[in-house]
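It is worth pausing here to work through a concrete case rather than discussing structure prediction in the abstract. The textbook approach is simple: state the sequence, then state the predicted structure, then interpret. We follow exactly that order.
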Amino acid sequence: MTPVDCRVPLNVEPFRVQMVRETSSVSLVRFDHPSQISLPTNYSSHNAAENFRVNIVEHGWFRLKYGRREWTLGAGSIFLSRPSEVYGYSHVKYAQPDTCLRVEFYGPLAGELSNCVFRLPLVLPSTNRLAFLRLRLGLLLSNAAEMSLDALACELVDAAANAQHDGPRLYRPELLRWYGERIGAARELMDCNPTAHHSLWRLSSQVGMSVFLFARVFRELVGTPPHKYLVRRRLQRARDLLRSGMPVTDVCYAAGFNNLSHFIRTFRAYFGMLPSKLKSSSLAPAMRRVVPSIADAWQECQQLNPDEQRR
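Step two, the predicted structure:
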C-alpha cells in the first residue's frame, strides 16, 4: 500500500493517507506527514469530519484544541472526531511528527452511533481494554490475522463508551501482550466451536492461566465475562441455524444449549423476538438488526446492561 499525498487547504499542514482496510461500514486508514516538510507550531484548523472517527496516535506528538480546551497527545493516545465539530491542530517543536490510525464509520452504523458519540469524551482516558484493541488493530495492519474490521471497530466504540468506568491500573506493555495472546486464544476457542463445553476451568487451563486471573483479565480486556461471551456466540450460531430452516428444538441443542425453555428466553432477550419468528423466508428490512454482521457486532456491544458492564 503506497501512501497518497492529499491536497488540503493552505491553513492546514500537509499529510499523507494510506488505506489499510475498508468495508461498507468501516474504514481503517493510516495518515502521517511527508518528511522534510515544515509543520506549523501554531494551531491550524481542519474542516469538520463528515463521519464519526476514532483516531489512535501510533508515533510522534501533536497538539489538539477544541473550544478552550487543549491536549498534547503522544503515542497510544486515542481521540475522537465528530461531525459538525472543528478542531485545531499544531505540532510540538523539535518533536517527532505524529502518525495516526483512523477508524471511520459510514452508513447505517454511523447513524446508530450518532446518539452516543457526542456524549463521549473527546480524548479518551487510557485503559487496558483500549490498549488491547490497539494491539488487535496492529494485527490488521500486518495482515497477520483474519478478523472482522467491523466487529473490531464496534468493540473499539464500546470500549470508548465504557472507558470512564474501567480501572485506573494499567498493565506494562509486555504483560499486556502476554495477557492479550492468551485471551485472544481463549476467544478463538469459543469462536471456532461455541457448542463445545467451555468451562471456566477448561479455558483457563488451555491458555495457561489460573481461573481467577483468567476471569478477571478476560472481563477487563473483552468487556464481558467469559460465560456471557460464550452465550452470545451460541446465540449467533442459533440464529444462523434458524435462518437455514432448522427446527427450533434441533437448533437449541445444536447451538450448545441443553434446555429448550432457557434457550427460548435467552434468544428472545437478546434478539427481541422468539426463535420461531426468525425464518429465512420472512426476513424483512425492519429486522435489520439481526441480519448484517455489522449490526450483530454493534448489538453485542449494546446488549449488556450498564450495571453489568461495570462488574
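Step three, interpretation. The chain has eleven helices and ten strands. The chain has three domains: 4-129, 173-223, 228-309.
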